[in-house]
């Protein structure tokens, strides 16, 4: 499975999504990160 992170300003994201559409990508899965420090701590616990 290929993965890609979309990070940037609104204009950056719009440009990157347009580029993906031109390349034939027709679906995106978006999962916002609400509390990065807590989520990373939970991930670290899962991995140890």
UniProtKB/TrEMBL annotation:
Taxonomic lineage from the root: Bacteria, Bacillati, Actinomycetota, Actinomycetes, Kitasatosporales
Protein name: Uncharacterized protein
Alphabetized InterPro entries for the sequence: Luciferase-like_sf
Top-level taxon: Bacteria
GO molecular function, one term: oxidoreductase activity, acting on paired donors, with incorporation or reduction of molecular oxygen
